Description:
The protein has helices at 2-17, 45-56, 88-100, 123-127, 163-178, 206-222, 238-241, 278-283, 296-312, 315-318, 332-340, 351-363, and strands spanning 32-38, 63-67, 104-111, 116-117, 120-121, 182-186, 227-231, 265-269, 288-291, 321-327. It is α/β, with parallel strands linked by helices. Belongs to the glycosyl hydrolase 20 family.
Amino acid sequence: MKKISLLIILxxxxxxxxKAEPTESSAMDLPVRGLAxxxxxxxxxxxxxxxxxxxxxxxxxxxxILRVDWNYAYESHPELRDPNPLTKEDVKKIVDVCKSxxxxxxxxxxxxxxxxxxxxxxxxxxxxxxxDETPHIKTEDYTGWPNPDGLYCKSYCPLHPEVHDVVFAxxxxxxxxxxxDMYHAGMDEVFYIGEDNCPRCSGRDKAELFAGEVTKIRxxxxxxxxxxxxxxxxxxxxxxxxxxxxxxxxxxxxRAIDMIPKDVFICDWHYERAEPTAVMFAMKGFDVxxxxxxxxxxxxxxxxxxxxxxENSSPGMADRFKGIIATVWTGAGQFLKNYYxxxxxxxxxxxVNTVKSLIREYSKKPQVN
Length: 369
């Protein structure tokens, strides 16, 4: 109890302490200046390449997390392809423009959670329904949130004996295609885990199940000196922090933070407030980046916090505060339309405005004293 109280006090203190405007030179000192966005469809590929070349690169972005999922012409499992997916040649164009501009690519294929969306069962569980953690719950019955089944997104069963044969083949193939050693597994918003109706997971500790899956993925990647990135929400205690169901865990997976390898890179997303949970992850020994969405003021606050934490921490701690990764949750095509034609934006709070705000910060020239 004392440890929890001390952590809350420390977080509260740091929240008050770091609220300062970023200096003109300090944003460029961040090791990670990233963007997480869906991979474009083939019709928007050329415009996406232009966006990287003319917008991200001049603003010194150096990381691009691309949600590929099934939008690739997989050869290992062609049954999982989306219609008209990106080809190996298409991906090579993205790789080349990123390499020429010093931008590292981390492809993302959602593992464990996010195996469905609303009424749609995504490719993995559609083709391999035996992997479903909750086969008795039907996505076609989805009626919005909340609903009687507690259905948001389905998960695969991490203890199914054949699931990793499939997903690891896909992971290896997409990493080869993007010629990279960084992989993002998603792992966010996992509400279905250790379900009572699952013949393998029933009665198991949810934190141990989550940690086991993270560790299994991490160890597979480590065989080829590749590194795992995940979203951090399932590792935060939603009850103690008051952060709640979405940006933290209310089903006890948070204890997995003490069970997973410390070389997992944490993408700490918070969209409504600049929650100071990056401190917790750094104190636990993880590299961490703060991840804003559609509120530019929150993004700039997170940027300021990250800079101040790097400036005011011990060298060992400071190096764990890696930077900022802006997130985009519309499709790449719609985002690009909004970016180049702001009149098409329907909401005052926009991920385009967040990205543009960060571009302005990263593009500022250092002051000369």
